[in-house]
Amino acid sequence: KEQQSTPSTSGSEHLNSGTTPANINWDELGFGIDHTAPYMYRATYHPGSGWEGGLEPYGPLQLDPSAQVLNYGQSVFEGMKAQRSAKGNIVLFRPDENAARMMAGADRLSMPPPPPELFLDAVLSTCRANAHYVPPQGKGSLYMRPLLLGTGSILGLGPAPSYSLVVYAAAVGAYFKTGQLTPIDLIVEERFHRAAPGGMGGTKAAGNYSPVLVVQLAAKQAGYADVVYLDAKTDTYLEEVSSCNIFVVKGNTIKTPPLAGTILPGVTRKSVIQLARQLGYEVEETNVTVTEAMDADEIFTTGTAVVVSAVGSLTHRVSTTSSIHDKSQRGLCDFLDRVCPLATWPVKQQSRDGGWVC
Ligand code: COI
């Protein structure tokens, strides 16, 4: 739904006087905190008094060293984007889905779920207060990062006695350094798993994201954009990429791993499934073997940060020796052309091993 770009919401009008920041070059936005927006939202929860808070200038949080989140990691987060529509209004994409996911994550980590109205008010008022940080249409977005943190102090293992809901924002561009339209190279990870059955892989917990760094950094050094994880039980099925969900396309059928507790229920994932079905594709939420992926016509990833990214190549090293079996996939094909008919997809000539099959 379109929101007015300069609405007057109680509590935020006095903050909404910013002019376009002079130091931002909208044509050179990356995905980072170079352009953090000046206002954030912070509410605290105490048993008995519930949630209380509002907008304040962006700045450090003051935490005791004994804060639960610093010791035991009681923390979930969300990622959302505010963008300008063709009419110049500011639009958010399905924020109610993020509200519901944060509530589910809060339950999983024994935190008080912020009511959806509070979550939405926090996000909308942060967005309105920082409206001048929403890039012009087509130049990027205002990435909004809601956090739910166990900020109260505790020493023995247990839930925090108090919590904070924080929403901050930054003007961002494409997630991958190569830009939104360049297909990414992925590698299948063989040593580590992202999540195990019965764990919390289906939760947007902060703790799911740092364990991937060790392999992600190594993959980046080797020239890959990110890593694809296999299931922890059989090492056979695709799970997800460190930063996003994954889809494989063969003919008119699109497959993506099912929501069985180990992968993140992505909002973009859900939306792409709906859109693909409307476009006439057969979409299966089912186990996808890595062998099937190597044989797919095309592969793409979805996520709030990555949007929809074409995969240019997928590498699967079948042994720990240096034998590399690259198989290129058509990264830019039918599906993406139909989803984004106006985009001009660059054509990549060959993959890492020269075996481009597009
Ligand atoms: C997002 O897609 O918004 C995320 O939170 C993923 C993160 C790794 C950037």
UniProtKB/TrEMBL annotation:
The chain holds residues 60 to 417 of 458 of the full protein. Its EC number is 2.6.1.42. It catalyses: L-leucine + 2-oxoglutarate = 4-methyl-2-oxopentanoate + L-glutamate; L-valine + 2-oxoglutarate = 3-methyl-2-oxobutanoate + L-glutamate; L-isoleucine + 2-oxoglutarate = (S)-3-methyl-2-oxopentanoate + L-glutamate. This is Branched-chain-amino-acid aminotransferase. Signal peptide: none annotated. Residues 1-21 are annotated as: Disordered. Its cofactor is pyridoxal 5'-phosphate. The keyword Cell wall biogenesis/degradation does not apply. It comes from Coccomyxa subellipsoidea (strain C-169) (Green microalga).
